[in-house]
TrEMBL record, chains A, B:
It comes from Streptomyces actuosus. It comes from the Bacteria. The lineage of its organism: Bacteria, Bacillati, Actinomycetota, Actinomycetes, Kitasatosporales. Keywords: DNA-binding, Transcription, Transcription regulation. Pfam families: HxlR. Residues 10-107 form the HTH hxlR-type domain. SUPFAM superfamilies: Winged helix' DNA-binding domain. This is Helix-turn-helix transcriptional regulator.
Amino acid sequence: MAAPRNPRPCSIADALALVGEKYSLLVLREVCLGNGRFDQLVRNTGAPRDVLATRLRRLVDAGVLAKHPYSERPQRFEYRPTQAGLELEPVLMTLMAWGDRHLREDRDRPMVIEHACGHAVVPVVTCSACGGQVRHEDLTAHPQAPGWTVTGPTTA
Amino acid sequence: MAAPRNPRPCSIADALALVGEKYSLLVLREVCLGNGRFDQLVRNTGAPRDVLATRLRRLVDAGVLAKHPYSERPQRFEYRPTQAGLELEPVLMTLMAWGDRHLREDRDRPMVIEHACGHAVVPVVTCSACGGQVRHEDLTAHPQAPGWTVTGPTTA
DNA sequence: CGCAGTGAGTTGGAAAATCAAACTGAGTCG
DNA sequence: CGACTCAGTTTGATTTTCCAACTCACTGCG
């Protein structure tokens, strides 16, 4: 009885519950750029210090970031991405490309990422099975949990 | 004057400012799945109704979603992704794959997306120039704005 | 007609998160 | 010693979120 809130079970939701809080992905961006110190993170993300401390704790606990000491004696740490953290970087790249494309008319992209091949990265999401692009019209969703359809739950 | 907070200028930040608020990407997920009606969105995302209304307004204003009437007289609408919205779907797919990989040990993925090629989508982010995978170790960042380095601003 | 029901929100107030600035504490530098 | 750095923590004030209840337009049903 009483279904308080049971939204669709989904790894997108799970992922966002972890890294979707305000500033978390900006922290990851900075950490991937090599700016892993607390005060750098404050400056570069704009996060309030207390919020940042909270986010960092969560991300470390979840295994997305790890703390690395860069100085004993005046004990100092630096945050770095774990393997899991690094694997989120393609998500950031794709999001950046989307922002560049849709949130800026002109060519004033504030940051360009260069790929090992020598070109500016323009990420394309592809299907690992066929190599083709992952586009909406080529996708069909198959919810595995009972009761969760894609055309509308209809509940009954 | 007084520089209150000027974080790094970046399209990731801009994109997140728009679609990074709680529930926004879940709304987009549902809308891409074809569940674009208000009450469906409430049920499937778990968002409070007032928050959902606020998010929908923003996403429509920003051109990520559009309102489509599916009934005159008892005026009823449905939200659908615009082209810009659809182009965010690959981001969702990549995020879902990350969640499947890192937030679940077993193979109980709650939703499987099938690609036109017949296989379950396992998205890979590639460089459009060379076709190679976009991985951290192959990337070099080039901030375009002055004062924003990748090894630490140093401010001075 | 009268009245329960649906869809798409809006309203009101309590609870939680965010924000800014000041503070702490270990330790170094001059 | 006194000033400074870094990595946070504390303290209140401000904003958001959350939830339940309510509205409004309209559609059946009997």
